[in-house]
Amino acid sequence: MSTPAQHISATDRPSLDAWPHAVMAALALLITLISAHLVRLTWFDAPASQPLNQPAPIWHARPSLPLAGSDVAAQAVVSRLARSDFADSMFAVMGAPSAPIGLVGEAGRKAEHIGEYIASRDSIALAPQAIHSDAQLAHALVHELAHLWLSHHPDAGAAFQRSLPPLEDSSRYGFGDRSEHAAEALAHAIQFWRASSMVRGTDAQLRLLAAYESIMPGATSALAMLDAHGAFFNAGLDTGVPLPGGL
After folding, report:
1. E strands within 64-164?
2. Residue 89, SS3?
3. I need a labelling partner for 17 at 20 to 30 A (CA). Which of 30, 53, 70, 89 fits?
4. Contact partners, residue 72, CB within 8 Å, separation at least 6
């Protein structure tokens, strides 16, 4: 059954004076939607300026542009990161490379690598030209230092890789590659440790750990492995969370 047409009186019709306001509201909404596609969430305060035992900074929006447009600018970004309290804390926990952090070479950039660990030189390279936020830069460093830690602890690393559950989601980094999966699990363990600094020893920290584990299976075991090998203790830090026996 169709709905009968309703008569609208002159007093019920919207005033012509209201139309400019409606148009402006629609334009404001359109600009907001367009802006949402032109920006991404990133760290407002550079995490590279914060030591590892400080809480992770809040998120804000900023234009999604690479951190550097040239090798000179990229080297400046990497040098700033290497001199930061964050890097010092990371080196204390994961170990430091034998050479200063460098830039990913042409072959690596063509392969779209934002970071590399070169085992033969025990060195790390990053690609700020392909990195769009300080948060991504910090995580790239953590990930490559995870490769370094695994290289420095080959027995533990091999046992850890064997223990990892297979990733079922092909969109997860490390899918089909146990070495990358292991490094990413260690990186997520470190990121969890940073994120939970304000809720140490509480149920909230355990819930957060479960969330990180669901994002990257193996993060809990990675945290236990680091703790068992004294990674935090040797750096004068504490996990603050009950953990299963490490590998």
Report:
1. 102-103, 115-118, 123-126
2. helix
3. 30
4. none
Q: Token pair 């355990």 is at which residue? A: 206
- In a 3-state reduction of DSSP, which class is residue 243? coil
Q: What totals of helices (H) and strands (E) does the chain contain, helices first?
A: 9, 5
Tokens of 151: 């290289």
Q: What is the pTM of this model?
A: 0.72
Q: Which residue in this structure is represented by tokens 């490769």? A: 147
Task: Give the distance, in angstroms, between the CA of residue 44 and the centroid of all CA atoms in the same chain.
Answer: 14
- How is residue 182 written in tokens? 């292991």
Give CA–CA dist 71/53, Å, rounded. 31
Order across the sheet with 102-103: list the strands: 102-103, 123-126, 115-118
SS3 per-residue string spanning 9-42: CCCCCCCHHHHHHHHHHHHHHHHHHHHHHHEEEE
pLDDT tens, position by position, 101-159 = 999 999 999 999 999 999 999 999 999 999 999 999 999 999 999 999 999 999 999 99
**Six-digit token pair at 136?**
């991504």
Is beta strand 59-63 parallel, antiparallel or unpaired with respect to 39-43?
A: antiparallel
